[in-house]
Amino acid sequence: MCENRRSMFRLAYLPVLIFIAVTAKAQLVSGPMLGPVELRTAKLWIEVVPGSSADFWYWKKGELATAKRVIKETSVDQWFGPLQFDAVDLEPNTTYEYRFRINNTGNIKPMKSDGTFTTKELWQWRKPAPDFAFLTGSCAYINEPPVDRPGKPYGGDSSIFETMAKEKAAFMFWMGDNWYTREVDYYDAWGLWNRASDNRAAPVMQKFWKSTSHYAMWDDHDYGPNDIGVNYILKNISREVFMNYWLNPSYGFNDKGIYTTISYGDVDIFIMDDRWWRSADNMKDSVNGKPNPDKQMWGKQQIDWLKNSLLYSKATFKIIANGSQVLNPASPFDKLLNCPVEYYDVMGFLEDNKIPGVLFMSGDRHHSEVIKVNRASAYPLYDITISPLTAGTHTFSGPEKNNPYRVIGIDEKQNYGKLSFTGEKGKRKLTVEFFGVKGEKLGEWSVNESDLKYNR
Description:
By secondary structure, the protein is of the alpha+beta class.
């Protein structure tokens, strides 16, 4: 009789548990997304329905009893509910488990994890730099037919993100146009927030968000309207949205721009902001036969930061990442070379100070390629462009059809890149692999540490 009563109680209680679970799930909009994982800290992100609260629990793998808890709440008056969490006081080279609970009014501890992350190894002064790889790409267009341009959808096969979620990589670096604002988004703050939230919530991307750490820079389409720069009247709102939907280490200085540095192993990536200070593209490059000092892409504040960062860096590979291409003399489209005062200032600085290990990375172009520009008294400079993830592709044509500066090129295909850093100290190697939607290899290019040094 007692056993029957217990069974009846369980059956009566089961719908309540199901209701709680379904309700909590309904309050989760997207995520979790993993951000930077350092030696003793990690950042994670989720978005919930405004008015919800979220618990973040984390613990050393296999030691659930020691779980730490962080609670955050959102206001019902908010338009959107992105939340960022910090896991702190961690141990290097250790795997941790974590779980989120939404509206956990009963203070129920988790019984299992949502995912895991592993802190960096403290290798400095102890052993050679570790081999590692990261993923990268740009131009991620998720279709929304009611507000998209008529005709053939601009967004391609989004299953590329499911393929990328299966890759083993230290992190993913998003190189701009990470979502595409449309006409319904450009002119008001709600539209900018909504575009970021809608893109982040795409079901096809959810596994990818927690499969590895994510960093990002922006270009025009996730900053505002196509090709816009310093004159965008909502750029402060765009920066606020960007800071709420990504987990970069920092976002410029003096509340300007989103430039920062990613350091991993013996690689530094200097993330440039090519929009905040950018002059209109149709401003003249020269005036009276002289370079126009008013035409800029990066701005003095950011260039001063870049110069000091390059001088300070001891990294084997120093990657300067920018939304627009930097080199590519054959391109008829926007590039740093179109801002000649800034371009020659930076190039002169690199040569005057004999900065080794410098490469450029970019997105934007809806094709992938490696551009090589020789220098008379220094090692060649390379610009690695990787695009698009899902946005429309195009065919090499015009002055770029047989670009003499192109080392390798991939057009008419969605693709992502994987950059691997391998080898013993003094003989490090960077290998760039290009992959298609289903993970098929489309091309490969590599450069050795020794190829990026000055002859002293």
